[in-house]
């Protein structure tokens, strides 16, 4: 046998062994992909009851209640309204003062002013963390005078309406 024929024979043997090794690998891969025999499904854990609907969103702990809502144009250093009022001038700022009690972590106190036709005249919110009685003031101003008419101030705690108060602009 000449050297060239020997090289061809070795190359052919090498290719044959690679081909066989490749076939065996495919067979192993196919076995790994084959699903196991059917078995009974695993039992699911017992269902847990859902939390009450008024539970605060994740990330908040709350047992916060609105104790009063007062409207006015000025608040003192203690955040309390200096002179409570329900009639405002068209150029007045409108402060919605929300007194709360309870404990909360990252609770959202929101106020919304609704005009007599149902249109939102303003909407603002504050995030509070408290362990007791607290007053939160939300101030509304308007670059133009407030339209005269009847309004409602709505107060919301963590997305749940807590209080409403009627007022007017004359």
TrEMBL record:
<feature type="region of interest" description="Disordered">
    <location>
        <begin position="32"/>
        <end position="59"/>
    </location>
</feature>
<keyword id="KW-0732">Signal</keyword>
<feature type="signal peptide">
    <location>
        <begin position="1"/>
        <end position="21"/>
    </location>
</feature>
<feature type="compositionally biased region" description="Low complexity">
    <location>
        <begin position="32"/>
        <end position="42"/>
    </location>
</feature>
<feature type="compositionally biased region" description="Pro residues">
    <location>
        <begin position="43"/>
        <end position="54"/>
    </location>
</feature>
<protein>
    <recommendedName>
        <fullName>Lipoprotein</fullName>
    </recommendedName>
</protein>
């Amino acid at each position: 046998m000449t050297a060239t024929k020997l090289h061809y024979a070795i190359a052919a043997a090498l290719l044959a062994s690679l081909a066989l090794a490749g076939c065996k690998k495919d067979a192993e891969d196919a076995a790994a992909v084959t699903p196991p025999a059917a078995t009974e499904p695993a039992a699911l854990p017992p269902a847990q009851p859902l939390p009450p609907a008024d539970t605060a969103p994740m990330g908040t702990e709350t047992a916060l209640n609105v104790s009063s809502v007062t409207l006015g144009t000025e608040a003192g250093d203690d955040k309390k309204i200096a002179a409570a009022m329900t009639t405002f001038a068209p150029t007045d700022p409108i402060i919605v003062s929300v007194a709360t009690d309870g404990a909360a972590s990252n609770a959202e106190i929101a106020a919304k002013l609704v005009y007599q036709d149902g249109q939102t005249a303003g909407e603002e919110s504050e995030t509070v963390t408290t362990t007791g009685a607290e007053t939160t003031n939300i101030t509304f101003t308007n670059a133009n005078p407030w339209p005269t008419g009847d309004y409602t101030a709505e107060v919301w705690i963590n997305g749940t309406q807590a209080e409403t108060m009627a007022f007017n602009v004359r």
